[in-house]
Amino acid sequence: MSEILKNLNFDVGMFVKPLLAIVCGAMLGLNRERRGRAAGLRTQTLVALGSCVFTMSALLLVERYPEANYDPIRVVAGIVGGIGFLGAGSIIQSGRSVRGVTTAATVWLSGAIGIVCGIGWYEMAAITLTFTMITLIGLGKLSHRIEGKRGDDDVVDEVTAAELQRQREHQARVQQSAGGEG
Question: Where are the beta strands (DSSP E) in 115-156?
Fold first, then answer.
């Protein structure tokens, strides 16, 4: 056991990169959590941390095995694809109402922040987090003023309760007439 501990090689970057990813992801997640949205504090934090660790791993492979044919861009592409899948899971459609689009976008940005933390580009992580928070908070308030509603751009083309009831009644009539003929 002591032999294993002697061979461990810790450096500051091993802690700073994932820690910054955690902080940035948590800040985005806190915004979503306070609004009662899917993909809140823990999800955003884990997406940023996971993206950071995958990126750090890809860079380490290139560094340690330069003779091998590793392409860290493939890891980044895999992260983006996986995050797209997570983001799609937070989008919900009900009739003509769509919810979760902004949450999906913040999951995607959490991944991006994790990637830049993983490569050690801390300035870009801070800039991206700042612009994202300005967009979520500032433009949410602006949206509220323009549209006269809560400023929640997670809801797209909201259906009125009366129209939703008409759609349900129509669907029930269609199902009833289809069942009556068979």
Answer: 155-156
